[in-house]
Amino acid sequence: MLIYKKVLCRFPAMITRFTQLYIGLLVAIPCLATNGTMTKNLKVLVSSNDYPPTALKILEDHFTVLQSRYLNFGQEGSTLGREEILKLIPGCSALVWISNLPITNEILDAAGTQLKIVSTVSAGYNHCIPEELRARGMQLTNTPNVLSPAVAEVAVGLILSASRRFTENLDQVRRGEWEIGFDKVLGQDLRDSTVGIIGLGGIGQAVVKRLSGFDVARFIYSGHREKPEAKALRAEFVSQDTLLEQSDFIVAAVPLTNETKLMINKETLGKMKPNAVFVNVGRGDLVDQDALYDALKNKQIYAAGLDVTTPEPLPKDHKLLTLPNLFVLPHIGSATVRTRREMAELAANNIVNGLTGKPLLSPVKL
Ligand code: DGY
Q1: Number of Cβ within a 10 Å radius of residue 58
Q2: How far does the centroid of ligand 1 lie from the alpha carbon of residue 180, in Å?
Q3: In sequence order, what DSSP letters do the residues of 342-360 get, joined into one string?
Q4: 252 pLDDT exceeds 80?
Q5: Comparing 42-146+338-355 with 148-328, is the CATH topology the same?
Q6: Which atom of ligand 1 is nearest to the CA of 147?
Q7: Which CATH number describes the domain made up of 42-146+338-355?
Q8: Residues 128 and 118 sit within 8 Å (Cβ to Cβ)
Q9: Which of 88, 110, 254, 261 could make an SS bond with 199 (beta carbons 3.0 to 4.6 A apart)?
Q10: PANTHER family this protein is in (predicted)?
Q11: Does the active-site annotation cover 331?
Q12: pLDDT of 95 higher than 70
């Protein structure tokens, strides 16, 4: 009876202790999973030596991180960088791909079947052999949206630089031979113009938002289907032919796919207005560059601004660079400190989620 009484009066304390223990476990188990104690045996390869430290830390908190000692771009990337990746990738569960260089079957073969996720630190993923990743049952993630504002700013910059003839004007300043006179170096107005966006995705929408202070008369866009966001942006869905025929400014903001490859060609350039300014912030291969050269040279269209070309870098003696009505940038769309950091962190968090059984933040539909 005494024992029974003793147990009975300790009962509330036991319940409290049990509850504390239970809550403790509830907190501790996910922590173990997310602070990496249980995932440290997984290896993640970072493909380039210029990955931001904040993103590296996200990966290091969870996994064993291997990082290439080389830049995964240009000559270094395709020689030393490639060899290093092939050496480091066997046994890795995820690959952070920082590069515009292609991922190859050789890399995937060297990795082994435990490679589950490729996380490209870019919005575009045409260089990531998506069909092959799908065939191998791997997942692919990219970094859309975080870069839309930065790329849209470059698109606006290209619209202004091409329409106000920055290439030839800068050349005049450098040569010290300014064309003077009331009707010299005249450009085209954005005011009261029609701006056509090929692909009203995140970047296309950000371009429209940024141009809203320029008194543009009409925004039109083409694509597979109408976008729900278009209404708030006062953008009108039209066929691609209507867009080409009616726009004073045309911005290509679509990914490179089999369908969009060379979509700007002799025929489509032929549909543009003589005052049209064409801007490309997507991928170089959207454009048949010989046809663009002819259209600019013959003044069939007014000017063009490109952030992307084929190849990259464009050789300095490339015929496109002889054109006074072309303004070219070296693919800097997403190149701001904040944007590159956010892209890198998103890529890292995709891997954390993917390897700890949580939903991917920005999966590519394969
Ligand atoms: C991308 O992320 O696809 C951009 O082109 C990189 O600047």
Answers
A1: 20
A2: 39
A3: HHHHHHHHHHHHHHTTPPP
A4: yes
A5: yes
A6: 2
A7: 3.40.50.720
A8: yes
A9: 254
A10: 2-HYDROXYACID DEHYDROGENASE-RELATED, FI03731P-RELATED
A11: yes
A12: yes
